[in-house]
Design brief:
binds adenosine monophosphate, alpha+beta
């Protein structure tokens, strides 16, 4: 695996404070903010502060502390928003896109948290 991180991507600019964001949670290792084009009533992006391109890059090279913090922040958001089924919420979807087939637009690892409405099946049949 060889990833080259582009520090001009839009989330890198958000982390440097060059572009505003609607922050939901911030910790030493993780930032969560509202997606600018929400696909559901609740659409939050969780990103590590470190320079990781996608999920497998993050899993391979981030520290245990970064990985634990990232997931605990994401889970805490689900709890805070009242969407976690374990506490009676209606559920949510987490996803992350990596690379060309998944149409990853921003090359800084991010987890989408989607909720607030029925989300349908995970994938639609391919158009081609
Ligand atoms: P992906 O296709 O998984 O790379 O998703 C990138 C996501 O970033 C999309 O859902 C965009 O709406 C979102 N996005 C792009 N620019 C911004 C921004 N400045 N603030 C918040 N979300 C953004």
């Amino acid at each position: 695996m060889a990833y080259a991180y582009d520090d001009q991507n839009i989330f890198a600019k958000i982390l440097r404070g060059e572009i505003p964001n609607k922050t939901v949670v911030e910790t030493d290792h993780t930032l969560a903010f509202e997606d600018i084009y929400p696909q559901a009533p609740l659409h939050i992006l969780v990103i590590p502060k470190g320079p990781y391109v996608c999920f497998d890059h993050f899993a391979a090279e981030a520290s245990d502390a970064e990985i634990a913090d990232f997931h605990r922040v994401a889970a805490q958001i689900c709890a805070d928003k009242g969407i976690d089924p374990g506490a009676g919420g209606m559920g949510y979807r987490t996803l992350s896109n990596a690379g060309e087939h998944a149409v990853q637009e921003v090359p800084h690892y991010h987890m989408h948290i989607l909720g607030g409405r029925p989300l349908g099946r995970m994938l639609q049949p391919a158009a081609d």
